[in-house]
Amino acid sequence: MLSAAARREQDILALWDQAAGRARHQRDDALLNAAGAVPTDTIGAGNAALLALRTKLFGASWRLRAACPACHGDCEFTADSAALADGLAPQADAVPPRIAIGGQELTLRLPVLSDLANLAAAPDSLAAAQSLLARCLGDMPSTALDQDTRDRIEAELERCDPGAVIAFALDCPDCSHSWQAVIDIAPALWAEIQAAAERSLLEVDALAREYGWSEAEVLALPQARRAAYLQLAGVS
Ligand SMILES: [Zn+2]
Q1: Reduced to 3 states, what is the DSSP secondary structure of residue 89?
Q2: CA 177–ligand 1 middle distance (angstroms)
Q3: In terms of CB atoms within 10 Å, which of 66, 84, 111, 132 comes out highest?
Q4: Model confidence over 178-218: pLDDT tens digits?
Q5: What is the H or E stretch that residue 64 is in?
Q6: What is the mean pLDDT of residues 218-222?
Q7: How far apart are alpha carbons 49 and 209 in whole angstroms?
Q8: Which residues have a beta carbon within 5 Å of ligand 1, which is an ion?
Q9: What is the pLDDT confidence band of residue 89, given thresholds at 50, 70 and 90?
């Protein structure tokens, strides 16, 4: 029987098999699918599912980095992916987003995961943002809206799905600049999966060369014993 750590490693490698070398939106889909998210979930619910998957694979402590917008220095910080996911749970009594435009009260539609999937074909980020706005407005033409109205719509959508944008208040250790660093959950999780999968493959490669073991044999070794053999083989 596989240990919990070995099972997690198998899950990470299976995800890597599905998503490595694919376009970003296909990778995001593979991760959301593995996280149990469905196309009708809000972006916040999708993020909560990704964070729960992240906690299952790597534990709650999450080391992240963001570039300081003032001095471009690298800022490392640690988040708790389990606590973060809890804070994003959809509210049962959430009211639909509404906004007044030209004296008329309009009900907006919250964007969901399938909206994002449809944006993958947009030629650039501006076109994608406009297309998303049009989806949230329904029949109302988005081209007729001024910037102030667009900003108000964006703020209202954020208020109704606060988990859609995950930001951290950071202070730069180099220049003391304070800012809100937005972290895109799917690419951040993918970077972690990719690094872990590559580490596993390097270990399999090293031990297969040294001892002639198969991939399955190396992956089945208990963590401590694998580490010991890697040390004996002069790899770590
Ligand atoms: Zn800085």
Answers
A1: coil
A2: 5
A3: 84
A4: 999 999 999 999 999 999 999 999 999 999 999 999 999 99
A5: strand 61-67
A6: 93
A7: 39
A8: 68, 70-71, 73, 172, 174-175, 177
A9: low
- Which pLDDT band holds residue 141 (cuts at 50, 70, 90)? low
Strands 104-107 and 98-101, sheet pairing:
antiparallel
What spacing in Å lies between the alpha carbon of 76 and ligand 1's midpoint?
12
Å from CA of 74 to ligand 1 middle = 8
By three-state DSSP, how is residue 39 classified? coil
The reported pLDDT for the residue numbered 103 is: 82
Q: Against a cut of 0.70, is the pTM above it? A: yes
Beta strands in 110-161 (DSSP E): none
Give which of 58, 51, 80 is closest to 196, Cα–Cα.
Answer: 58
**Per-residue pLDDT averaged across 94-114, rounded?**
85
Cβ neighbours of 151 (radius 10 Å): 11
Contact 144, 193 (CB under 8 A): no
Rounded to the nearest whole angstrom, what is the distance from the C-alpha of residue 113 to the centroid of ligand 1? 34
Tokens of 40: 């009708």
